[in-house]
Specification:
The protein has 664 residues and is of the alpha+beta class. It has 23 helices and eleven strands. The strands form three sheets. Strands 1, 2, 7, 8 and 9 form a five-stranded antiparallel β-sheet that branches.
Length: 664
């Protein structure tokens, strides 16, 4: 069984003239994790770097131009040079004129639209406003209001006032009332958010030629904005690649300078301390020597030589190294917790168990083919699903497992007749030809019922293998960490394992061979339960912890009784839990039968539609449910056996392009 990747602590002393080259190498290699969080350095608070300031300006330019930066990568980027600073400044100056003209054009358009709207509102007011306002019996108010409350205002004013909308958008009104009713009118207008407007006393409305002139101004402003939009598009097209290259370079420089400012340093020397996989140590030292022309001091330590690790104050970071298929399952491990450094790496087992469980519960050759093809397309980047593309090997794996199970059950897109020639050929090689190698659809005959119980027994057998693997990993991990008491005693130790395995062996003897329990059976089971129930004091005794009985004899007995019951219930529930694997496999077969029956009942084009829709629902919804169940069985039945303490995931220092947005 493979263990977690062996690590080394590396201490680097770097001259100031070489620090940029060293950080660039470490960040791009993505194989160095700082021992502690940055921020302890001697040169903090240095202010914003020139690279960071330029990067923000370029990011604002990118935002203004609407350039998509989702494909920007800084893996191939280099630190910005003086020429890059000059090129960036030249580009930004070229854009500054366009930006100012664009802003002025937008403001001019806004003013012209407002002027035309204002004028249009009063185009139907031809009588002199001063003449109307000085009438002894008339009180006038002109202003703005929300069109949504206009009808409510009319209703509230009632017969006391007349409300006249001005303009087509009804955002301006003329309100008229008698002199005696002006206070009531003002109250109602204020209640509905009326904003008075200043009207010249000799205002008589807007002549038609003035309206036409304002309209022409508005159209001219709109054209100016459109022309500038085309100019901006042309500028974007001709400068896009250059802008993205500069963004990548200055993003890299910004991150590197930020890290540099936080490092522990003197005026001449920087110190970097971090963890590196042991297999990469020699190559890293060779590369750093070459980069600095041997102007670097490198010291490396084994974890057991690091005082903070020995004292338990620091956990060695854990890195898992695998091929493409197994590594796709690593996030499933780390989402639950990181294994402890130096323990068994469970990822290969998770890859096998998850794929197996999914295939058993989702057995259909056609539906499995969809997952398989989707995984291939994701791996080839034909289908891009963001961060999900890294899980392409999982889709390929579960698709393959589902197809294999589908060939056994004879299901192809919920149809049990398409694969009959293949099924009869295979079964004919070993006896009488049958339509299915492994019929799953429940029937009322005794043979079908017997087969169903055998399949549930197979599900429990799979659970036995998974549970046993978890126990073995736990025992091995404790031996590796020299925790011999935990390895031997307790429900997840060797004592619990012996109880579990012996009870299963006894059940098989009784069921298959007709044996009855003997005295020695009860002795073995009782002894295993005793060491499991009294695991806590026995662990303290073996590991040299004192006192052996922490809380007195009575408390120890009570704890032992509880531990005894928990051991029995845990192993029983862990085993029975795998019945759901068989249940989901049967449910999948029943769903396929329902889809096939409904499509035959509808017939024709409708039947084809039912088949397509039914299979789509099964692939999406049942696929999600089966995946969740497979993950659940991993977490609660497998991981719970050995994940008693979590470690620290290896998170290397690396550069990543991150858009910060902004506007000019």
């Amino acid at each position: 069984m493979a263990k977690t990747t062996e690590m080394r602590l590396v201490d680097l002393m770097v001259l100031k003239q070489d620090i940029s080259k060293v950080l660039l190498y470490l960040g791009k290699s993505g194989n160095f994790q700082f021992q502690s969080s940055l921020g302890q350095g001697g040169e903090t608070g240095k202010g914003e770097s020139a690279e960071s300031a330029m990067y923000k300006r370029l990011e604002q330019a990118r935002s203004f131009l609407g350039v998509d930066d989702s494909g920007v990568s800084i893996e191939e980027a280099e630190l910005p040079t003086d020429e890059d600073f000059s090129a960036a400044e030249s580009l930004l100056q070229s854009l500054e004129d366009l930006t100012s003209r664009d802003s002025a054009a937008i403001d001019a358009l806004k003013r012209s639209e407002e002027a035309f709207s204002e004028a249009s509102s009063f185009s139907n007011l031809k009588q002199s406003f001063s003449e109307l306002d000085h009438l002894s019996f008339l009180n006038l108010r002109v202003g703005k209001i929300n069109p949504g409350v206009l009808e409510e205002l009319k209703f509230a004013a009632g017969a006391r006032a007349i409300i006249v909308p001005l303009g087509e958008d009804k955002t301006r009104i003329l309100a008229a009332s008698s002199k005696r009713g002006r206070f009531a009118l003002d109250t109602e207008l204020q209640r509905y958010g009326f904003v008075p407007m200043e009207i010249p006393k000799d205002f008589k409305g807007i002549p038609d030629d003035v309206l036409e002139s304002l309209k022409a101004q508005k159209e001219s402003a709109q054209k100016a904005v459109s022309d500038l939009a085309r100019e901006r598009a042309n500028f974007t097209e001709s400068h896009k690649d250059k802008l993205l290259r500069l963004l990548a370079s200055f993003s890299l420089g910004s991150q590197l300078r930020g890290t540099e400012s936080l490092l522990e340093s003197t005026q001449l020397v920087y110190r970097l301390t971090g963890w590196v996989p042991n297999k990469d140590c020699m190559e890293m030292m060779r590369q750093l020597d070459a980069l600095t022309e041997d102007r670097i001091s490198i010291r490396q330590y084994k974890p057991e030589e690091v005082p903070a690790v020995l004292a338990g104050h620091e956990k060695v970071p854990v890195k898992l190294s695998h091929g493409k298929f197994v590594s796709a399952f690593q996030r499933m491990i780390f989402s639950y917790g990181s294994p402890l450094y130096g323990t068994i790496d469970p990822t290969p087992f998770v890859a096998i168990f998850f794929t197996l469980l999914f295939g058993i519960m989702f057995g259909d050759a056609g539906q499995g083919l969809i997952f398989f093809l989707l995984g291939i397309l994701m791996a080839k980047k034909v289908v891009k699903l963001g961060g999900w593309n890294k899980f392409a090997p999982i889709f390929i794996g579960i698709g393959t497992a589902s197809m294999v199970m589908g060939l056994l059950t004879g299901e192809f897109f919920a149809n049990e007749t398409v694969l009959e020639p293949f099924e009869r050929f295979v079964t004919g090689l070993f006896g009488s030809p049958r339509n299915q190698i492994l019929p799953m659809m429940p029937q009322s005959n005794p043979e079908s019922i017997k087969r169903m119980f055998m399949f549930f027994g197979f599900s429990i057998a799979v659970g036995f293998v998974i549970n046993s693997t978890g126990i073995i990993i736990n025992v091995a991990n404790n031996f590796l960490q020299k925790k011999y008491g935990k390895a031997l005693f307790g429900k997840s130790g060797l004592a619990g394992a012996i109880f579990f395995w012996y009870v299963v062996l006894l059940a098989v003897r009784i069921a298959a061979l007709g044996h009855s329990p003997q005295i020695y059976d009860w002795v073995v089971i009782g002894t295993a339960l005793f060491f499991s129930a009294f695991g806590e004091p026995l662990i303290r005794l073996v590991d040299g912890e004192r006192p052996v009985i922490e809380n007195g004899l009575f408390a120890m007995v009570i704890e032992a009784v509880v531990e005894l019951l928990e051991t029995i219930i845990t192993y029983l529930s862990n085993s029975i839990s795998f019945l759901r694997v068989g249940a989901f496999a049967l449910a999948h077969a029943v769903l396929g039968f329902i889809i096939l029956t409904m499509s035959e009942m509808v017939g024709g084009v409708g039947g084809v539609a039912v088949t397509i829709l039914g299979n789509a629902i099964v692939v999406v919804l049942e696929g999600m449910i089966v995946a969740i169940q497979a993950i659940r069985l991993q977490y609660y039945e497998f991981f719970s056996k050995f994940f008693n303490e979590t470690g620290r995931e290896f998170e290397p220092y690396k550069f990543e392009y991150k858009s910060i947005g902004g506007s000019l």
